[in-house]
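Retro notes (design track)

What went well: tokenization of the new backbones is finally stable.
What didn't: we kept losing track of which sequence belonged to which structure.
Fix going forward: every design gets posted as structure first, then sequence, in one message. First example under the new rule, 130 residues:
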């Protein structure tokens, strides 16, 4: 993706927060094929820098719950405090039931069990209005 590409300005931007390079690469490719502009972060610090209000017009965040530098569960609260309008899709290979219980009263938070295929990712994004 070229940041200078004028067409990028017309595409909704998602942030992928994933520490596993291959998972991140495949996810980014799927999202770009769906028409999204994608920002990437492999650590909590990089993710929070992109989430800050000065970080631009984010439409959504795909967050690996096991991210270096922070507990993904705690990051959801930090993200929602900074950008309550931005939906967060939590991806986890662990049991998502505990996560669902924790965030069931938070609007704009969805869940995506790992591993996931293109269709499952698309459906999860659709449920969040993305």
């Amino acid at each position: 993706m070229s940041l200078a590409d004028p067409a990028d300005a017309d595409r909704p931007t998602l942030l992928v927060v994933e520490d596993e390079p291959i998972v991140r690469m495949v996810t980014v490719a799927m999202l770009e094929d769906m028409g999204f502009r994608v920002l990437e972060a492999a650590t909590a610090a990089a993710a929070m820098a992109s989430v800050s209000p000065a970080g631009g017009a984010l439409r959504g965040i795909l967050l690996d719950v096991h991210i270096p530098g922070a507990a993904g569960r705690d990051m959801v609260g930090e993200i929602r405090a900074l950008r309550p309008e931005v939906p967060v899709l939590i991806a986890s290979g662990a049991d998502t039931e505990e996560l669902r219980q924790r965030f069931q009263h938070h609007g704009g938070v969805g869940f995506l069990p790992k591993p996931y295929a293109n269709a499952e990712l698309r459906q999860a994004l659709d449920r969040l209005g993305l």
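Added context from the reviewer: Strands lie at 13-17, 37-41, 58-64, 66-67, 70-71, 88-92, 109-113.
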